[in-house]
Here is the input.
Amino acid sequence: MTAHTLPAPNHAAVEFFDVVKRYGSGSTEVRALNGVSLRIEPGEFVAIMGPSGCGKSTLLHLAGGMEDPSAGRVYVAGRDVADMDVTDRAALRRREVGYVFQRLNLLASLTALENVSLPLELEGVGVRQARAEAREALAAVGLDHHLDRFPDDFSGGQQQRIAIARSIVGRRGVLLADEPTGSLDTATSDAVIELLAELPVRHGTAVVLVTHEPRFASWADRVVFLRDGRVVDDTARTVARSGLGAVS
Amino acid sequence: MAVREGLLALLDEGPRYGYQLKTEFEAATGGVWPLNVGQVYTTLDRLERDGLVEVRGGAEGAQSQKTYAITTDGVAALGAWWEAVPSDDPPPRDELMLKVLMAIERGDDHALKVVTNQRTVLLSLLQAKRRERRVMSDDSFASKLVTDALILRAEADLRWLDSCEEQLQTRLRAGGTTRPTRKADR
Here is the structure.
């Protein structure tokens, strides 16, 4: 028997077990999540939809280990987030889970390549290695030219690609995207979502996209609907229910 | 149904046989609007009766040998159709809307369930259409445009269901509505 436990080889990318997240207490208590169970496989593209205040963003924060559940368990890459200390969580955010937000947060004084390699360099990866991985991530999002230019030299769509490259660099297994197309025009938004849809297929990344746009959600393999902190429906279930058949 | 105008539009390009009109109509509409040949001849008979098309050649023979041509009146009628803007006729009555409105009659909780279910099914269909659209070849231009129309309509329906959900939730949080009295409740 091995002395240490390894995650099961078939672990989910992200798994929620009856997760509750409360903010405030007593009469001001708000249950942002109220008993959510959800399993997201490696290489799966899942969209999360629901009205504002339904718990979509909270779900992403928990999936990334940025917050702890009030009850229930959250597993990321086979590990219980509650068992992780501060160092483990920092490593989780830098090595396992990437984020893309509506605001890009690219550093204006660093080149495209430097922006993408920065997370690895902060992790202690040598510059040469970090840059090589950054080039690979940028190539994955379709950028292989002018990497020595600064973010402002790129269009909005290209900047979002750089941000996505930064969030997947180092072959992270999970990409969490919160309304990533908010500031982009329709055609550019479509291109960004198409790119997100390719990541699971080409690189096995699990992508979790929070959106209020049916247009973007329909690119996903699966759409989960939240309301009042609960999962009210899931297209994975509908397929079985309506006999639409496998749509993959 | 705009089959009449569709046939006139095809005849405006030159005289055609009935069967030819059927196949050209179906090709132009991306295969989503199949016509049976009987329907084509019935429509042509009416167009002939109204003086919008005339039979040229084969008039005495079998229907399938007749050639149809557009008349001056037909050209004018077609011109008016291109220019006409869609009116309120037919009124905006579709099954989805009826279903949600009827569900609200039964109570907001029930309506929310119906909205949720309809939305999930519609999104699954949208996913399927989106996948279909991605692999469509360049030679199926009409089919692509038709699929785009179906995608955009599904998106519009989904937005409407989202809006229903938000408003139903707001109403439920504010204490809900008194459930309307129905026969079954008495």
About this structure: Strands of chain B lie at 16-17, 53-56, 67-70.
